[in-house]
Amino acid sequence: MWKSRFVVILAVITSVLAGLDLFFVVGLESFRVLVSLAHSADLSLAVDQRDRLLRESILRMISLIDGYLLGAFMFIFGFGLYELFLADLQEARASQTSGRILQIKSLEDLKTRLGRVILIILIVEIFKDAYEVKARSPLDLLYIAATIALIGLALYLTHTPEARKEKPDQGSQDSESSKRASGDPQV
Fold first, then answer.
1. How many domains does the chain have?
2. What's the pLDDT tens digit per position in 35-75?
């Protein structure tokens, strides 16, 4: 029964391959956008054409950010499943940079990390939509401001629990070290 967990390897492999594919495709598209951006600086084009080309290039760049974030999402998901169900990634544990991303200890931890990536993807999408919006009335500006305020609130709420978890640990270490320095025998 315990060996049935190896079914997860299919999800791990396909997730990592999807992430690699996304990075490859989005990387190629990035070069196309760079060429388009360089072409938008061509002074032989009419001003309207340059503006249109620049606007389209910027929107494509924002979409590329989404592609890269989705690729990262697939990596985090795949590696997270691997760590939860199969084995620890020893090479990742030894790396200083992966400690912030790939140390997943529970399903809740994986969901939290993936939720944050999804939130960032949504922020990028809202940024892209806000770039295209033409505010025709004060109410339109109010909607945009409310959207930005809700994004700020969402970011605050996703980062607050970590800050709360870290503060007691730091405080208890500080109080223990101050007791040691004062010569308190109960430490």
1. 1
2. 998 888 888 888 899 889 988 888 899 889 889 989 988 99
Nearest residue to 23 via CA among 62, 70, 60: 70
What is the C-alpha separation between 61 and 131, in angstroms, rounded?
12
Domain assignment of residue 100, yes or no = yes
Q: Tell me phi and psi for residue 136, to 5 degrees.
A: -105, -15
> Residue 95 and residue 102: Cα distance in Å, rounded?
10
Q: What is the domain extent for residue 26?
A: 2-104
Answer whether residue 132 is part of any domain.
no
Q: For residue 129, is it within any domain?
A: no
**Percent of all residues in the chain with a pLDDT value above 70, rounded to a whole number:** 75
> Is the pTM value of this prediction over 0.70?
no
